[in-house]
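Handout, section 3.2

Students often ask what a structure token actually looks like in practice. Rather than define it abstractly, here is a full record for Superoxide dismutase copper/zinc binding domain-containing protein. The first block is the sequence as you would receive it.
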Amino acid sequence: MGVLTGVCVFRGDGVSGSVTLSQDEAGGPTKIAGTIKGLDAGKHGFHIHEFGDLSQGCSSTGGHFNPMKMAHGAPTASERHFGDLGNIVANEDGVATVSITDSMVTLIGDNSVIGRAFIIHESINAHCLLVNRMSNQASVVVVADDLGKTSHQLSKTTGNAGGRVAGGVIGRGKAA
């Protein structure tokens, strides 16, 4: 069969780059490697979403790819979505180098990620200022994938990862 590959080219407001996925055999781990530029410095949630539909930008890609109906979790957790890949980190120049090996992501079979979308979420440095009107106290809410480990209402579904800043459809690459 040879090595199967997939390719995802990212587009967003000032964001560009690509990752290549490769899998040696059915049931084996998938390697994800590439570079993304134009990001805010810091951590960004990095997930595979259900649909490769970018007709309405990143908002039409659905939720995290989750065929087993599990709670959101860290890439190393036994309970997680297939699409939960944690955070990537962009340096001061806005460049993130991706190097992930994952045992749930597959390019083969019913749960293949080919035709689905990768989404990059807001940086932990992008934040919202919330003001409690009763006490006039302000608090800063940071965003990055919390890996399903907080009490936030979105932690077990999205990792409270924040808005979507870039995405791309995973296409089948040439077999190596």
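Discussion prompt for tutorial groups: The two ends are 9 Å apart (CA to CA). How would you have guessed this from the sequence alone?
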